Amino acid sequence: MQKQYGIERAFLGPRTVEPSEKPAPKFPSSRYFQIHFEALTEQLQQTQNSLALLQRQMQEMESRLLNQGLNQDSV
Predict the structure, then answer these.
(1) Average pLDDT in the 29-56 region?
(2) Whose CA is closest to 28, among 38, 36, 16?
(3) Which sign, positive or negative, has the C-alpha torsion 33, 39, 40, 41?
């Protein structure tokens, strides 16, 4: 079994890189980061808008509950 691997390895020889092949970049391009930063910024804006809407709805609900409580006390 070991000899067969040695023969195959010798037959294949060392791997050489062709001039047309470019090595993979070590770090992603700046465009990659820009796209993800834009997506994160958009997601953050949507989250902030949702939070503001929820806060307004909570204030309205608290106001209605407070008004109902005052109306029931006067009856």
Answers:
(1) 96
(2) 36
(3) positive
